[in-house]
Amino acid sequence: MLVERDEQIAKLTAWVTGVARTHTATYSAGHAAARRNAPDDPVRAGRTAVVSGPVAAGKTALLHRVLELTAESGVRILSAVTSASEQHIPFGVVEELLRDTADTAGPLPLHGAAGNGELVPAQTLMAFHARLAGLVARGPVLIAIDDVQYADPQSLHCLLYALGRARSTAGGPALVVTRGPDAGAPAPRVLDELLRQAEGPHLRLGPLSARGVEELLAHRTGEGPLPAGAAPGPSRTARAAASLHTATGGNPLLVHSLLDDRVPRLRAGEAVDGSFPAGEQFVQNALICVHRTGAEGLRVAQGVALLGSASPRPLLARLVESDERTVAEVVDALGGTGILQGERFRHGTVRRAVLESLADDAVAALRRRAARLSYEAGAAPMVVAAHLLGQEPGLPDEDWVPGVLAAAAHTALASQRVEFAVRCLRLAEECSHDERERFQLRADMAKFIWRTKPSAWAQELQPLNAALRQGTLPVGDSLRLVGGLLWNGWIDDAASAIQHAVDGMPQPPDPTMTAQLSHVRILLASTYPTLLGLLDGALGPDDGAAARHTAEDGAMAGIRVLHGVLSAGTAAPGHRERAALDEDSALAAERILAGIRLTDETHFTIRACLLSLLYTERLGEAALWTDRLLDEAAAHDAPGWTAVMQAMRAHMALRRGEPAQARLLAEQALEQLTPHAWGVGIGMPLSALIEARTAMGDHEAAAALVDHPVPEKMLLTRYGLHYLYARGGHRLATGRHHAALTDFMACGRLMREWNMDREGLAPWRIGVAEASLALGARDQAERFAREQLARGPGPRVRGLALRVLAAARPLADRPALLDRAVTLLQEEGDAHELARTLTDLGTAYERLGDAAQGRSCTRRAWRIAEVRGAREGAPRSRTEPSETGITLPRAMPAPAPVPGAAVRTTRPSAASALTDAERRVASLAAHGYTNREIGAKLFITVSTVEQHLTRVYRKINITRRQDLPVSWESDVAHTA
Questions:
Q1: Where are the alpha helices (DSSP H) in 200-277?
Q2: CA pair distance 202, 178, nearest whole angstrom
Q3: Please, which residues have CB within 8 angstroms of residue 548's CB and are 6 or more apart in sequence?
Q4: What is the DSSP letter of 119?
Q5: Phi, psi of 72, deg, nearest 5
Q6: Between 491-503 and 511-527, two packed helices, what is the crossing angle to 10 degrees?
Q7: Which has the closest alpha carbon to 431: 366, 358, 368?
Q8: With pLDDT > 70 as the criterion, what percentage of the chain qualifies?
Q9: Secondary structure (H, E, C), 135-153
Q10: Do 910 and 873 meet the contact criterion of CB atoms below 8 Å apart?
Q11: With contact defined as beta carbons under 8 Å apart, do 221 and 266 qualify?
Q12: Which band of pLDDT confidence, cut at 50, 70 and 90, is reported for residue 870?
């Protein structure tokens, strides 16, 4: 079926019919009279017609259709089909035209001797003309040649001579030819001269429009042709046709090919949709189109496929070793036939097929040439690197290659193409002849691999560590290796690296290396203090000048802030001084976080800043920053970064009384990385998970985690402190009180020795006090609790210390201490510890005879434990398990009032006087939510929350938050 060709068919049919009528008139009524009376005289209308267009536009099909329509006109057809492979056969077209005329006369003298400078002997020209004249005398003759651009020059000379003689005598045959592109091959002069004399119709075929593709698709699927004048509608066929047109550019052959590839699916009854995957037929015909664009078509197409674009043209021309004019012709022809769209391949499958047409060694050679030419032309490193990566083996042995690959790697990282960056660095290392350059490339590669594939990180460090042991690693590179060695627990190797750098320090000292040594010293002091002691002062004291340098360049600003936070627990002389230091440190950490983005160079600084906020108990700010950075890490597809920050976020959730969330975060962190990839850092997520499981009462799971093997060197690091504290908490909760006391005391001893005695890291004194209470040593418990309070901790830790102190004091002293603890924990939002404290307070009230107050506290503890998923915080007396697994209190009858006990009650009339807004705020406050959390849940300000609570207190006759009744049922209390 021919689509959108009706006009051209009509014109060419009329022209052929005119040839027949004119011949009849000429030979029956006299030449002059016939010319006056014949309106379609081919002499006036022209004896030569040309049909041109891009490859596979339907030129041949149109010619055949016209010849079918004019078969009854009496015109004798002499036809020939040419091809590029037969272009060099002399007189090939003439012999094909006259193949059915041999019976009328003897063979033509086609191979006689030519005169000087003659391509065709004169006798051959005259014989060919005479043969045609004899045929014309019997009836009209039409010569039809398909793909005339491939006709041999000898035959073209014969046609030019015969048609010229016919024109001078106003009689002779007519000629119709189809002509496609022959890009890159100059047309024979005789062909140009022949077609220049054409005075007949010149029909140019183009690709099908979207409407034409829709009409063809409708015919193929049996939906019938579109109504005349109808615009394509939003039907399924129209959408599929649009997809077809986009994939093929309207090339009829390619459209049919895609449909042919879908024939089995269509026969199975599948509806036509917009999905047309390229199949074997489509790819095969696309390659045919490429070959038929001209002698240089395939080579230029291969160059475009390799470069990915036909631009810039000078580069493409140099790559395929052709002139720019030829390249421009081929690119235009490929665009006209639908293979290219603009400067690029329209279909990736075709591009791959064109590349596969090259032999492997040819691809490598072409890629080498492309890389060199791109580099010489000043192309971007990413462009050059793409060619270098695709030609292994056989890279050009040139000095510029490693530098270009390294530059491309850093550019790729900026656009989050980490895998590409690692491939560039790996190849650059293989190509480099400079040993120091290779070490630097290996270090960069290891750093980038940590982001995306942390499990392979240790393996990447091994060659660098081997060079360190052999003494071949440059001094500067040895310092950059220290962090990786320490993380993997290779403490001895890290010590060797540091000593190697110290021994190799030039004289006078290099400022850059001095700053690096200062950075290493701070890293050791804040995370690996054991190694700092082993080096026995080799790094020297902390240098204030180096500190200022660090603060200016920001490379290690975060770790310096972290070191200040940890050491402030010992160095600050008083409460106010330490609080001021903490405030300054927290502000510095937030300034750093606000000024940098998450990259391979900054993620260590970011981690240190987040830990600084965690250890100074700025939990709200820490959680906010961590959540933002986790989103950024997810966008970077960086499991290494994500896992480390999830572990820190789990500790933040624990301190906000959210053990269920902490468990989820810690488990996700451990799933992101293998234990081997975690190195000594596994202490961070593992400790969070142990604490969370313990808080939720899942002691069996916590025990399995405690039994999990950990790196031997982990306990020599700050991560080991987290682990010791978590293990002590688990042992305390499971009745192993002596073992728990040992863990807490060991944790405290190390923290003091390492100059990081900071309760924000691990409140070990509270752990010692709780274990002492369990062992019956009340005096020791009170001493450690008071010692913790004397250090001026933050509100949350102060609340924890007050709860333990209350347990060590006489019963009459407990309510006041616990009441203060409840206030502090409620303000800080630690729901888990708040539930525990409320449970203790309820028990104290009950033992003192205030059963109503005791029940009120117990109910609040139950509600908080239920909402936050903390089993251990739930009341333990007179309990039964719930369906959710949280320990719930049994329903108890109201006890008889104790004589002399003042029991505060809430008048129903007063409670009913609350507005809806006041009831919602009071309900949330009764369930343990802080003012800030209430404001966030109800979308009101903290000030508005405070005003509502003030009015509630007045209306229901209470004076403090703890007296709010939890019996008010409100759905708001359980909404997120």
A1: 210-221, 236-248, 252-261, 263-267
A2: 10
A3: none
A4: S
A5: -90, 5
A6: 150
A7: 368
A8: 84
A9: HHHHCCEEEEEECHHHCCH
A10: no
A11: yes
A12: low
Query: In angstroms, how far apart are the furthest CA atoms of the chain?
Result: 146
CA angle, 947 then 951 then 954, to 5°: 140
What is the Cβ-side half-sphere exposure of residue 941, based on CA atoms within 13 angstroms? Answer: 3
Give the pair of three-digit tokens for residue 389: 């990566």
Residues 6+ apart with CB under 8 A from 120: 114, 154, 157, 158
The single-letter DSSP state of residue 103 is G
CA gap 705, 701 in Å, rounded = 6
Tokens matching residue 384: 């050059």
Measured CA to CA in angstroms, residue 883 lies from 586, 660, 880 at distances of 43, 17, 10
Q: What are phi and psi of 328, to 5 degrees?
A: -60, -40
- Please give the pLDDT value at position 274: 55
* Distance from C-alpha of 785 to C-alpha of 798, rounded to nearest angstrom: 9
Q: Is the dihedral of CA 35, 37, 43, 44 positive or negative?
A: positive
Contact 289, 337 (CB under 8 A): yes
Spatial separation of the C-alpha atoms in residues 514 and 501, rounded to whole Å: 10
How many other CB atoms are found less than 10 A from the CB of residue 834? 31
pTM comes to: 0.66
Q: How far apart are CA 930 and CA 442, in angstroms?
A: 51
Cβ-in-10-Å burial (0-12, 13-18, 19+) of 221 comes to middle
| Residue matched to tokens 């006798």 | 123
Residues of 842-855 as b/e, b for ≥16 C-beta within 10 angstroms? bbbbbebebbbbbb
pLDDT digits (tens, 9 = 90+) for 55-95: 999 999 999 999 999 888 889 999 999 998 888 899 999 99
Is the peptide bond preceding residue 810 cis, with omega within 30 degrees of 0? no
Say which residues have a Cβ less than 8 Å from residue 459's Cβ, sequence separation at least 6. none
DSSP SS3 for 762: coil
Of the candidates 47, 159, 50, the one whose C-alpha atom is nearest the C-alpha of residue 96 is: 159
Confidence bin at 878 (pLDDT 50/70/90): very low
- The DSSP symbol for 78 reads E
For 93, phi then psi, to 5°, come to -70, -40
Question: Is cis: bond before 207, omega within 30 of 0?
Answer: no
d(CA 365, CA 91): 40
Contact (Cβ atoms closer than 8 angstroms) between residue 495 and residue 484: no
Nearest alpha-carbon partner for 966 in 843, 810, 877, 852: 852
In one letter, which amino acid is 252?
Answer: P
- In total, the chain counts a number of residues equal to 976
Two tokens, residue 944: 């508005």
Query: Are 274 and 217 spatial neighbours (Cβ–Cβ below 8 Å)?
Result: no
Q: Give whole-number Cα distances, 393 to 376, 396, 425, 675, in Å.
A: 21, 9, 16, 36
Phi and psi at residue 144, in whole multiples of 5°?
A: -120, 120
CB of 738 within 8 A of CB of 777? Answer: no
Contact (Cβ atoms closer than 8 angstroms) between residue 662 and residue 653: yes
Q: CA-to-CA distance for 751 and 904, rounded, in angstroms?
A: 47
DSSP label of 179: E
Of 131, 121, 123, 122, which is closest to residue 172 (Cα–Cα)?
Answer: 131
User: Distance of CA 171 to CAs 92, 129, 593, 777, Å?
Assistant: 25, 12, 92, 130
For the chain, the average pLDDT equals 82
**Whole-angstrom distance, CA of residue 770 vs CA of residue 731:** 11
CA distance 807 to 814: 7
**What's the rounded Cα separation, in Å, for the pair 159 and 124?**
11
